[in-house]
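Protein: CsbD family protein
Species: Pantoea osteomyelitidis
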Amino acid sequence: MYGKAEDKLKEAAGAAQETWGDATDSPDHKVKGAARKYSAQAGYAARDVADTVKDQVQANPFAGLAVAAGVGVFIGYLLGRK
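Structure follows.
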């Protein structure tokens, strides 16, 4: 829960910095604000995906184990090719 709140705060700070860059016509502030805003949104999305996966695996652990095994075999196949 703390991570999501932190991401929302960083997103708001990035949006404010981007708006400040627009108001002062500063491309440096615009770019840094946009980068901060979008990285916070990506972090929020990644946490949401991780929470969803965790809930799905807790609901059906055998399917999660099968998917993890399949991914492991696939990666092993890709790394073992010559």
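Remarks: The two ends are 45 Å apart (CA to CA).
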